[in-house]
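Quick one from the shared queue. A colleague (R.T.) flagged Exocyst complex component 3 as missing a structural entry in our internal table.

Convert sequence to structure tokens.
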Amino acid sequence: MDLLVGVTSPTTQNAESNQLDDMRREAETNALRIIQAKLEKPENLEKLDQLRTAAAQRKRVLDEQLRTAVQSQLESIKTGIAQLQISLDNMKTVERTMRETDEKLQKIAPLQSKLEDLRHEANTYRQLSLAQANLDYIIKTPENVKKADDLMGQEKLLQAHQLIMEIENSRNYLLFELHKVQEKDSQPDDIQLVTNYFADYERLVAHLKQLITFRISRWYDCAISAPEKLVTALRLIEREEQVDRFWMEKKELSGFSPPDRPRQWKKLCFELLRKSVKDRIEGNQLETREEHKYWLTRHLEMCRIIILQDFTIITKTCLRCFPKQYDIVNRFLDYYHNCLKEHLTEICDPKRRTEGDTLTTAEVYTIVTFVRDYQGAECLGKPELKLDISQLSPLLEKDILAAVTDVFINERKQKFTEWIPNIVTSEVKDWYALKEVELTSEHYYATTMPRMLINMIIETLDMAKQMSDETCQLILGMILQKINEFRDLYVAEINNYAKRYFSDRQ
């Protein structure tokens, strides 16, 4: 309790004393009220001893609880005061230490100007040590250029690339040092001097790029005959990507980047792959309509064969040659699909064709059936390939496919329009011809007109069915319309024949 002495003011103590007196009086009043309620009847006086005992026990319990609560509060207060005292001591220690540190810093500050020369000498020493470390590489640059040329001539691209990187590191070191000097003093002549000294380096890089481009462009042949050459080219591309990332990060920190970075050879690789796919699809069109009637059928069949052959190589060999992150199977699937889509769109789009260069019925039939079977088991859907074709877009957009289908429907409609009058005319000529009517084996009169008409209908419906159900429905509606026209024309000719026949009898 001694710790609480002096903590509160006299005014606060008086207020607390008055509050305690009020609480005591209130407790006495409540006690009298309770006793009066329990001893209201005379027979309750017999229980007076029991009530005293119970009240005494309750008082002891409450006193114990109060004592425990007060003791707990006192312990917490003692702990808090001790921690406050420790914090106060720590603050005094920190204040004293900071004051001493300020005094020492005041003595050290004048040394900064005195050490400026030492700092300059340290920077000079660091630069000279780096120059000495790179001096051997700089001096050996002409020799390394010759070695790199010889290695690339022997198609040892990995070793050649290592020498090229040594030359590049030497050049970049010099350019970086000049970049730091330029922040204070511009020296364009020095940069030009370095550029001229490493001119052969740029030629080596261009030659290496040419060799890698050749291998990537001929990925199919490399994958079959020399997959190690394809792997080497891809390894070099990945090395260059790492160097590109290094210099991009370096530029963010220092503001310096070599003049030929980033090279982005990975992006170039993907562009070459897509171009090679486009060339393989468009390059197998060896004939035109003037040269062969079924040029388009032969061309699309060759496309199908090439796609199957290529994806057999892609899924078996290229998958092991290309890095996993390239996702090369799906990438090639996207390239082949989009290039073939562009090629077919160019062939089918009416906006790109002249009036006299429209597609024929046979060509339309070939295109539509190819589009239908494109994702089937005879092409991309072949089970052995295990290609994910669920995300591919339609090979022909709806408007292009509708335009192609309209060509077929209009051509068939035109054919029926020409055939039906000719069939009826031929039949009418037979009526008026002075010759015996043909008989069947059962001695019935026979005519070839129904068979000709049925063959026309069956042939047209078979072609439409091979194209699509929607086309088949449109063709069927057109045929029914033309059959009604045939019926009207045929009935009219029969009536004319009957009138002439009966007029002759009269």
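The longest helix spans residues 48-108.
The two ends are 152 Å apart (CA to CA).
Added to the table.
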